[in-house]
Amino acid sequence: MVRLLGPQDRLLHTIERQFPLVNVLVRGNRITLSVDPEVEGGPDQLQPALLLVEELIQMIRNGVDLSDTEVTQSAKIVREKSGSPADLLSQAILTSRGKTVRPKTLGQKAYVDAIDENTIVFGIGPAGTGKTYLAMAKAVQALQRKEVERIILTRPAVEAGERLGFLPGSLNDKIDPYLRPLYDALNEMMDPEIVPKLLAAGTIEVAPLAYMRGRTLNNAFIVLDEAQNTTPEQMKMFLTRLGFGSKMVVTGDITQVDLPTGASGLQLVTHVLDDMDDIVFAPLTSADVVRHNLVGQIVDAYTKFDAERQRADYERQNPRKR
């Protein structure tokens, strides 16, 4: 019951917000749901609310640590009759140091399934949707299952407005700030004592995109992060590195391009490879954001602002003829 209700009954309040016409009464280990039959729409919410509570209980039995995200997404699945939340959101990808990595939204579940079923997957969506984190979890899982012999993590070394200047140290020291997020995620998913050994042995490689040129990557799980900052030429170069027994996941947010000039390779590739077999584009939206609730609202606000600005620019460039 404590795991179902959450700290300070936070999850209980989330359930009540999903079905505002349902009265939820908790006494000990018993939950009672009721509605006022005279309130319009009340009886229609009772059955979905009951099903939601049953699914949340099953998710707890499956080992899921519930949060607001799981409750909200489960309510959405129940309302849309898209299946069983306990089945869809209880799939564990990886367990490390007591922490389990699993998809938390329908979009993330579709993304993970696409990685399982295809050779090349593009995960495109805003910040906080778990694009890179889930891809790296699938890479570590594939390595542990011996489905691949190595993991290759790469991203373009493009400055996001800041000027790092002439950094001291070796070449690896200079590019380390760009690759640090990938190292951080690795240390979360694996024993930090093992990661340096795997890096030294070449079983895991973290490198800037420029290091991929001229190589053929066989029996590897390859993740390209921040792909919106690749040029079309770099994207073509990267995709043609694919070797036998390998799988590629490309992640990026086309609304946050940091390239100084020119088109983004990620934007272009959505048109070039749109209808090819074994290549899937898995879109993620603000509904899949699993960070603070404000992150999803911020993403929506910027999306709305950009749409209005584009419309204003179009109207200014194409005035109506009188």
Write the layout of secondary structure elements.
Blueprint: H1 2-5, H2 10-18, E1 23-27, E2 30-34, H3 42-61, H4 68-80, H5 85-88, E3 94-96, E4 99-101, H6 106-117, E5 120-124, H7 131-144, E6 150-155, H8 171-189, H9 194-201, E7 204-208, E8 220-224, H10 232-239, E9 247-252, H11 265-272, E10 279-283, H12 293-317
Parallel strand pairs: 5-9, 5-10, 6-7, 6-8, 8-9
Antiparallel strand pairs: 1-2, 3-4
Q: Any overview of this molecule?
A:
This protein is α/β, with parallel strands linked by helices and 322 residues long. The chain is built from 12 helices and 10 strands. The longest helix has 25 residues. It is globular, with a radius of gyration of 23 Å. The termini are far apart.
Assess the beta-strand content as a share of residues.
5-15%
Q: How would a textbook summarize the main sheet?
A: 6 strands, parallel
Strand ordering within the main sheet: 7-6-8-9-5-10
Instruction: Write down how many β-strands occur, each being a DSSP E stretch of 2 or more residues.
Output: 10
Unreliably modeled segments: 160-164
- Gross morphology is globular
CA distance, first residue to last residue: 68 Å
SSE ordering: HHEEHHHEEHEHEHHEEHEHEH
Q: In terms of structural class, how would the helical and strand content be classed?
A: alpha/beta
The radius of gyration over CA amounts to 23 Å
Name the average pLDDT. Answer: 86
Helical residue percent band: 40-55%
Helical stretch tally:
12
